[in-house]
Design goal:
Strand content: 15-25%
Low-confidence stretches: none
Structural class: alpha/beta
Order of helices and strands: EEHHEEHEHEH
Helix content: 25-40%
Distance between the termini: 17 Å
Strand order of the largest sheet: 1-6-5-2-4-3
Length: about 170
């Protein structure tokens, strides 16, 4: 069974095989986890993501989808850029669940047995804590093949406490 944890920390300091990074539909690393990644590791990831859009003929990624990228200087095996918002930063439970499902599946295919995951749509996205909890509860009961642990990581103490109430003690 896949085990879920929560950590109140900086996600880029979390140790895992794979990272689930929150992303906007244009895959611009303009803020949040993506912006922090850009500042820490440089423009290689941004270049990869824009190249991905060009090579697939897309102008944006539909909410609920994820794009897997190489580590681009980080310690991760792969990074899934999960889109859980629309162009207006609106979200819903289906966007969030689908984005996690796609990201987890793609990272598992990239041999990531442990994952650190941003709390999708909880930053610039307008997801309330209650709606985020509602979004992830069905995921917590699922077994993901070849995935041992998924740690939801946030710097929001109130959100971390709410997640801890349903997954157990923070890691």
């Amino acid at each position: 069974m896949t085990r879920w944890h929560v950590s109140n920390a900086d996600i880029l300091d979390a140790k895992a095989d794979g990272l689930i990074c929150s992303a906007n539909p244009n895959l611009n690393l303009s803020g949040g986890v993506g912006g922090a990644f850009l500042l820490r590791y440089g423009t290689e990831m941004q270049d990869f993501l824009h190249s991905h859009l060009r090579s697939t003929g897309q102008r944006y990624i539909q909410p609920g989808n994820a794009v897997v990228a190489p580590p681009c200087g980080s310690t991760y095996k792969a990074i899934a850029h999960a889109v859980a918002i629309d162009a207006f930063y609106e979200t819903n439970c289906d966007f969030i669940r689908s984005a996690y499902e796609n990201a987890i599946r793609q990272l598992a295919a990239a041999s990531c047995r442990t994952m650190s995951a941003a709390c999708l749509a909880c930053g610039y996205g307008r997801c309330s804590i209650a709606n985020f909890i509602e979004s992830i509860e069905p995921l917590l009961a699922k077994h993901y093949s070849n995935v041992d642990t998924i740690t939801l990581v946030t710097t929001n103490t109130e959100l971390a406490e709410a997640i801890a109430a349903i997954v157990g003690t923070p890691s």
